[in-house]
Structure formats: C-alpha cells, structure tokens
Amino acid sequence: MSSKKTARQPEDESPNLRPYLSPRMDSTNESQVPGTESYAEPGAMPDQQYQETRTPAASAQAGPTMPAGPPPPVPQPGPTPSEATGTARMLASLVNMLYMRQQAMTTSQQQMHNFMAQQARFQQEMYEMQARANRQKQKANPPKLYGHADEDLELWLFQIEEHFAAYTLEMGSNDSRFVDMVVPFLGVDVMAWYREFNLAMGSNPRTWSLFK
C-alpha cells in the first residue's frame, strides 16, 4: 500500500528575516567575521569600531589615566621704564634722607661733645678759683702800711707777695690789677701818696714793679 505524502503548507515569510549569508573566512576581510578581534558590528560608528579593535596589550601599555595637574603659573609682566625710573628716584631720595639724618646725628654728637668739654673746663676753673680762695683765707691778712718811720717797707712788700702768691700771673702782668688788690692794705698817709702816684701815671698802667 503506497502511502501518500501530504503536501506541507508553505509558511509565511517574516518580513524581518533576511537570508543567511555565509561569512567569508579569508584574511582580507576579518572585520566582517564574528569572533575575530577585528570584527565590528554592522552599523557601528568608526570611533566605536576603533575602540573595540584595541588589543588588550595596547590597553595594558596605556596604563591608568593620571589626573591633570594645576595649570602653569602665568608669567607676570615686568616693570615698565617709567616705573623703574620712579623706583630709582625713590631709592635715591631714601638714601639721601638717611645720609642727611646721619649728618645731623654726627653734628649733634659733636656739639654735645664740645658742650661737655666746655663744661669740664668751666668746672676746672671754678675748682681752681675755689682752691685759690681757700688758700687765701688760710693765710693771715698782711698788716697795713701806714708809712711810719719804724715800719719795715721791705718786710711789708714781702708779706704782700706771700699773701697773694696765688696771683703770680696778675702780679707780673702789665696792667693795674695787682696794684688794685694791694691798695686796701694802705694806711691813710700812704694812701695820700698813692693818690699822687695815680695822678702821675695818668692813663698808663700802674704795674706792681712801678708801685714798689
């Protein structure tokens, strides 16, 4: 008995299906072979294809991405010629001011030194005058010369010079200072003689040598 085969109804073809194309396995078109390193999905962008085709060795050599450092400093502009000239003038003015101040301090110190030296000389002179006055007080006042016949004129002159021994400069000077110091030790009669002596000298100095 012969069996009859029932004819199969033709299936409706799906509009989304397309006939299978066997890929070419030649080495000239590996980018279209699935499973290869250079394979790229159809419709992929060029950048995506480049990223997908990078080998692991190239990725390992690139290493981790380092963070970007701070931007380099912007170089500052230098001073202009006018600013440099102004700075030089300012420095010159400052140096001149310091020099003038130093000069003023030096002058002030010199004046102070001169003042202290003058004060020291004045104190020395005052000390000498005080010492001279003390020596003068320690000596007994010489007797007055009255002009009597029993008086020793040479002895009286010696006593006067000893009494005023601290005034040797005035004693030997060419003026009337020492004689004016001796006049208070003259008695009445000798004072009359001194008046005539003074009139005779006129404007000439009455020195101690002439008085004796």
From TrEMBL:
Q: Composition bias, kind Pro residues: at what positions?
A: 67-80
Composition-biased stretches (Polar residues): 25-35, 48-58
Span list, region Disordered: 1-85
**Domain of life of the native organism:** Eukaryota
Q: What is this protein called?
A: Retrotransposon gag domain-containing protein
The lineage is:
Eukaryota, Sar, Stramenopiles, Oomycota, Peronosporomycetes
